[in-house]
Fold these 2 entries.
Entry 1:
Amino acid sequence: MSDRSLTVAIASGKGGTGKSCVAASLMVSIPGLLAADADVEEPNLSILLGAEPYASSLVETPWPVIDSGKCDRCGECVRACRFGALYMFGKAFPSPNDLCHGCGVCSMVCPRDAISETGRPVGEIRLCRAGEMTLFEGRLKVGMPNPIPVINATLDAALAEGRDLVIDCPPGTSCPMVAAVREADMVVLVTEPTPFGIADLDLALQVITDLKKPSVVVVNRADLGGSNIDALAEKYGTRVAARLPFSRGVAESYARGKPPASVDDQWKEAMIAIWETAKKTAGR
Amino acid sequence: MKTKEVTIVSGKGGTGKTSITAALAALSPLGIVLCDADVDAPDLEILLHPEPEGDFPFMGMQTAGVDTDRCTGCGKCEDVCRFGAIKVTGGKARVDKTFCEGCSACALVCPVKCIAMEDTRQGTWFRGMTEHGPMVHARLNPGGENSGMLVQLVRKVAKEVAESSGAKMILTDGPPGIACPAISAITGADAALIVTEPTMSGRHDMLRIADLCRRFGTSAAVVLNKADLSSEGSRKIEEACRENGLPLLASIPFILDVVHAVSQARIPSKELATHLEPIWRYLQGM
Ligand code: SF4
Ligand code: SF4
Ligand code: SF4
Ligand code: SF4
């Protein structure tokens, strides 16, 4: 037994399977957990927890600034930028655009040391509270293309608390999801028993298996669809930990912004069982 | 008439975007081309069963590759990489391709020049033919990068297919979210249809994607799905549409037979026909 804190990530190959419902239900079923909303494009956990923001901090990425006193318009920086983010029009000095990834290559290559860096806000971390519960919510600024810095900053802030943590991950199987599950002791994959659910769970399990993360599967709306999730889970050496039927009651409470476990005992029991599994998986 | 492109988006997933896209295709009064730009969870083919007409590799940005024989393990590359994508383990530098943005900073600093930028396959794109028209779709490799570039690619191919086949409209099933792939899917489209649901999160996400459309100059309209699951939620969506000047084209109830159709990998066109009529009227009037 160790008293190391436990981190559980809630993910899904596609959106809308009930990922945030599971995350919020864990929060209201297990006392004392901290939450992080890493679905920074569409953060919904605060809505479900009824959590209000009380503090926030900006997430910034580096942004090049060209000193026109030093720049001789040689164009080295424009040629070195692999994102097409620097342009030099007519007689103007080079200037960066929205495609900038803040990689720092332009300032590395400038022979005249004319490029310095400042910060550009790409999102924020909001600290939210509902009763005893605390949530770190990452929010990507609308119009910003890259969610990864906001995901990383949100997780770093939440992990620094050193408490048992539930992470609501971005949907899908590309780099944002991988970034969000990186520190998890166990990943809960939420799916539904439809052909869509199966196809997307298959992709998600490939990624989670590649990352060598222990996982369990939660089948939401288990009575709608009829596809066989067990066989797929078995193929990847994982298992279905809970099956939650469709219920109009749950759907209506979700619509009003209430997590299923606060109105449905079956959800609550499933959450307690999942948390126990996570503890065992992490050797606690 | 110039070919028009409509991108169907949702902000959050699971609102029924793909089922509605498929049903719009099946009920189309015009010649159409289908484009699945949800390259991370490409589900449109499950309902449309395209006859394959070819698959092609998608090469994203180049990524860093280390010649480990020559690497001295000095760690300069790790220090300079701002994406945590290159790390020295066991005395050799290794690249995590999922996080390599391909900026080449590591290659520039390596004192023994043992890092080269190399082509990296990030996914596959496909052409196919469905009962309702040609289809272009793609799949990003799990854990892949550059989904925005792949979205641009399938849209470009869909446009070429539409022009050569004389199709009047492209229906693009867009990705969830508001970041790079979503931006790539709406930029330059003639209209965005936002499929939402009568929940607080549905409303929140609808407003964020509508904001994105405004910033990128794409006109947006809303389709409210599963409207009867919450009358209060539906009222709030109607209100939000009014306040933000978003036309609300249709309110579709929760129809169990739609779920059953999708479960059998069948397009729920019969079930949705009457509800989708006003949407086609709007699209034709564009
Ligand atoms: S590399 Fe430096 S000097 Fe050359 S154009 Fe860029 S900023 Fe100016
Ligand atoms: S920081 Fe990187 S991406 Fe941004 S302009 Fe400079 S070289 Fe281009
Ligand atoms: S900078 Fe070059 S030599 Fe040094 S660890 Fe990196 S790859 Fe190896
Ligand atoms: S190319 Fe850029 S992102 Fe990729 S490993 Fe090198 S420094 Fe890091």
Note: Chain A has a mean pLDDT of 91.
Entry 2:
Amino acid sequence: MNAEELELKRASLSALASLLNLTVLPVIGFIFLLFLYKQTQAQTIGRYYAVLGIKINLAAAIALIIVTGLMLLLGGFYSPWTWVFVISYFVFVHALFILVATWILVRSWTGKKLTTTFL
Amino acid sequence: MKYESQGVAKLYFIAAIALFVGQILFGVTMGLQYVIGDFLFPEIPFNVARMVHTNLLIVWLLFGFMGSAYYLVPEEAERELFAPWLAKLMFWIFLVAGALTILSYLLVPYARLAELTMNDLLPTMGREFLEQPTITKIGIVIVALAFIFNIGMTVLTGRKTVINLVLLTGLVGLAVFFLFSFYNPDNLVMDKYFWWFVVHLWVEGVWELIMASLLAYVLIKVTGVDREVIEKWLYIIIAMALISGLVGTGHHFFWIGAPDYWQWLGSVFSALEPIPFFMMTLFAFNVVNKRRRDHPNKAAVLWALGTAVMAFLGAGVWGFLHTLAPVNYYTHGTQITAAHGHMAFYGAYVMVVLTMISYSMPIMRGQKAGNIKAQVVEMWSFWLMTISMVFITLFLTGAGIAQVYLQRYSDDPLPFMVVQEKIAIFYWLREAAGLVFLIGLILYIYSFFAKGKEVEFVEG
Ligand code: HEM
Ligand code: HEM
Ligand SMILES: [Fe+2]
């Protein structure tokens, strides 16, 4: 494998790790992602996707864990309305993160960066 | 259009869209009845409106599937349809039978309809989605047989592609599983089994094959990606759909008096059911990213991607939400179920039919793609309908969570109707979203008539 192929491989592995962290392997996926980040070189596609994965997952951690935690704290654990918001919010936003990570995964397979248009 | 006989699809699609409008009109009527109980009572009682809403949905989706097959199969098989006249004849039979059935729901009390149609000779009426009088059901079987014969002969005597074979398998499955609707055992547990053998094995089994093949076809056309790549995806998707979906039926056997082991089997296998839907998302994203050309029909690409996303959300995510037995213990038959039912049906089957229509209708009208204005209007309708469906789902989910908490989870549970009063706000919001959906649908219809600058086609 030459250097370029190696970076492509790392790009797609990073995107995969990011998706796994959001789905079936939380935390483990993120550790894997950090590990991949350390292996990549600056200015490469591998680094780009490792950083993107880390950013997405940090954003997800804030949106899902912190915001949900705040909703619970402020709304009160024993109010039905808290759970109405927490569960609907968590399910929907979590699913959106999974969709974004899936798009990023597919994008990483093309070896190109994200673009703002998709049609 | 490569083959002239593909053109029969147009009839089917027009009927489908017309019935779709009817379905939504009854939807918003019921949405209002939810909050203003005697709206249109006694002319259109809620239970009748509900039956009309769901039956129109099923019937127009069947029109949509048949139209899609009539359009797709000749092109894939590289020959004209075996018997175009039969397709036309069946169209009229199905339309008349369908219209008469819907009218009879509205004009004749259901019990009287059962008498009139001699339901006691072979009782099949009264089960949700399958309320049609026995005579209508027999009509459906005849239309389905003629349809499968026509499509089957075209496939078998023409080029056999994976898409055609998967589609044919799905359609045969649809017809075969419908036969369970003729068996209505007196034992209530058995009765539920056979009801689910139709309803579940349709939407979480054979219809998935139909959906995957239609999506694959449109994606090949609009992206120019190699058939071989797409076929590999199709194999894995349908294998996963069947492996998870068949035993997954058990997620309906938790509380109907079936043996306990269904709680395990149903939970474990149905927990795998999101996988094929997720794979369809991955597949659609992947081929759009690897596309070899920019097809001028952007609206069709948007519908295809939208189908993949919304089916994953509605069936995959909202299905998983309540599919594990310990969760379903609380959520069974609440607004959570309705939330899931709406988003899944819309995201998977409504959208895949609209994808096929979006791709094929311009071609049947002698263009490569709709003109620029038509496409812009169509994309607006896409967003209006899709976003309002997301909101309908979210409002019903909110209603469902509150319902579960107040009526089933809390230490001092409240009675059903008391809870309904408390969550009325969600129903008002759902109604508002429903009206936006209706506006989206009206725009959708307008898009077929919008005039504007023609698009250019550059073969890549
Ligand atoms: C496109 C595919 C799907 C469609 C159209 C669909 C539609 C529906 C509908 C209409 C109902 C309500 C039936 C009734 O009247 O009682 C329902 C129930 C249910 N669905 Fe789905 N569904 C789909 C996929 C899934 C998937 C993939 C799962 C699981 C991961 C799932 C899990 C469930 C469960 C557990 C129920 C029972 C809810 C209850 O106990 O009340 N569905 N579905
Ligand atoms: C394409 C769009 C739609 C689809 C696919 C759809 C599908 C369905 C399905 C499958 C059911 C049966 C649900 C179940 O058994 O759990 C249903 C019931 C219902 N739908 Fe729709 N629907 C659509 C649009 C609408 C709209 C726009 C409204 C109104 C705002 C609406 C209002 C209702 C109501 C009130 C019920 C009865 C729920 C109940 O029995 O509690 N639907 N619909
Ligand atoms: Fe099911």
Note: Chain A touches chain B through 20 residues (CB under 8 Å).
